[in-house]
């Protein structure tokens, strides 16, 4: 009886140790901390330490066919069935595969990584808005790219190439899925959400900060699949 009880206690202790190890391993290895060693919320860390060092994005252009997006089409709009971004094309099918995707403004690259699967290569860029803006900064996601041309931590200028339009390794016809997030650090996400309050309408956001007319056109829903929406 004692041997069985000892075995059970040993097994429970071993399982507990494994659980604690896995929990520790899942934590970020270099999570930001304050002056007292306490872990900071990412948005607090971003606002306190990163935002003041970033360039101010005074003007935004469109990521495809800048500055005004002439020749670009929205193949699936923001908020359609919970769509958290927009799908953009310049040609049907895979006709725009390799089209340059450019930074809409001056900003700082957060991530440039190949997630494979349905996302392909993804670039995240943070943009500091002029003083007094609400929000103070936005994060833009450029996804399903065929290649990336930037590195995390890199400062980019308006019009600088971030990558090229892709098709998520053949999962879809080529297109650019891009998002504008008013909340920094949302992560990869799932392209759709029931609550869209952390996101902004990409076309409307840029158009309001472009300083000129928008020439981007919305395709009729009957053509979306032919133009590469996801």
Overview of the molecule:
This protein has 230 residues and is of the alpha+beta class. It has three helices and eleven strands. The protein has helices at 2-26, 42-50, 202-208, and strands spanning 73-76, 86-89, 100-102, 107-114, 121-128, 137-148, 155-156, 161-165, 176-181, 199-200, 217-218. Strands 1, 2, 3, 4, 5, 6, 7, 8, 9, 10 and 11 form an eleven-stranded mixed beta sheet that branches. The longest helix is centred in the N-terminal third of the chain and has 25 residues, at 2-26. The protein is globular. The model is unreliable at 8-30 (pLDDT under 50).
Structure characteristics:
alpha+beta; 11-stranded mixed beta sheet; globular; 3 helices; 230 residues
What would you call the shape? globular
How far do the termini sit from each other?
Answer: 61 Å
Quick one: how many beta strands? 11
Counting helices, strands and paired strands, the structural category is: alpha+beta
Mean pLDDT: 85
Using only C-alpha atoms, the radius of gyration works out to 22 Å
Instruction: Give the topology string: H per helix, E per strand.
Output: HHEEEEEEEEEEHE
Strand content: 15-25%
Helix proportion range: 10-25%
Q: Identify low-pLDDT runs.
A: 8-30
Largest sheet: 11 strands, mixed
In short:
The chain has helices at 2-26, 42-50, 202-208, and strands spanning 73-76, 86-89, 100-102, 107-114, 121-128, 137-148, 155-156, 161-165, 176-181, 199-200, 217-218. The protein is an alpha+beta fold.
